[in-house]
Design a protein that fits this description.
mainly alpha, Ammonium transporter fold, two-stranded antiparallel sheet, 15 helices, 2 strands, 68% helix, 1% strand, globular
Length: 447
Amino acid sequence: MRKFKKTMFFVFAFMIADNLKLFANVIASKDLPVDSGATAWMLTSTALVLLMVPGLAMFYGGLVRAKNVLGTMMHTFVAMGIMTVLWVAVGYSMSFGSNILGGWIGWNPDYFFLKGIDDKIMEAGVPEYVFSMFQGKFAIITPALIAGAFAERVSFKAYVLFIALWGIFVYNPLCHWVWAEDGFLFNMGAGGAIDFAGGTVVHISAAVAGLVAAIFIGQRRGFPNIQTRPNNLVMTVIGAGLLWVGWFGFNAGSSVSSSLSTAQALAVTQVAAAAGAVAWILAESLHQGKATILGFISGILAGLVVITPAAGVVQPWGAIILGFFASMASYIFVSMKHKFRLDDTLDVFGIHGIAAIVGAVFLVFFIRDSWMADAAVANGGSWTIMQQLGVQITAVAIAIAYTAVVTLIILFVVNKITKFRAGDIEEMKGLDTVYHGERGYGMLNPN
């Protein structure tokens, strides 16, 4: 009985301390003024990033065969539901809480179901609700990107289970390492690993996961001999336009302010996208004799991806070079993938992976002097481009290795629970009718 009373005493003491901490945080947060300009921009950025999700659905949906258009779009939209719930429940806490388990993840009981941020204003003058929802959109679009790598051949039930586990065990830890104040990549070197808006956390992780899953699940029936054409290229072009618009929130919103850094990020986002588009159609014209609209929007995407990690540190001239370089590198990879019999259906690794790696590594050669000066001060002396290059390469290598290994483990687990790949008959009939009982178009033969 005495042992029970002692245990209960410690339980109640912990609860009282936890509530006092929460109360103190609330009182302190109320003393911080709300920056209406920054808050208005962050609200807008949050909406812009969410706009990228239907944009991605249209981009992917238009590229697959007609019998798979709804199933492919569903992969993107279902992430809006699943990842939002997981983000509110545990994702935000795992990503931005204090280090636990040796820094593998974070945790903050105030962030569990967002129960402790109801009245909290961040130092940037933005309500934490806004910041948490802004970051939650990144958690949505990252697993949605993965689906493009194995489009047209995946079980819907397996996909749903996969993205839930992947978000918890891959995305949240990577987010914590790179963006949390006590994350080890955030604190690596004088300036930390530079990833302004998700080159490593979002694009490299999604691309590597997609590549691993595409190899694990195998090629589509008839690949590469059977020719598959986009069912609606017009829809894909519209989707690309929505992605371009939404990307301004994706990058410029990552400044968590309405200031000079916001303007800098917005400007280089536009410039890199344009440079990537021009580079791709130039490569097509020289290589194939034609410039295609699909090539143009692929170049846009490569330019947007490459500038994502670099948007906070490079100037427009550097954005042009990065956009050209990433677009050319992606074009070469996509052109050669069939030689390796790699069925990355919608070129997730070919564009997102290649361009993000280029951006995360080569941004060091275009960093503005003021950023390097601040890094030198933080280092207590000097800080060189080559030192930062070492940090960037290390961060990219860690992200690739961790994502590949954990994704493979998740794939094995999911495949044991339910077959990850759709059966031959299901693949022949198409994802739309088999998994959703619907058709995207009123055609008798939706192939």
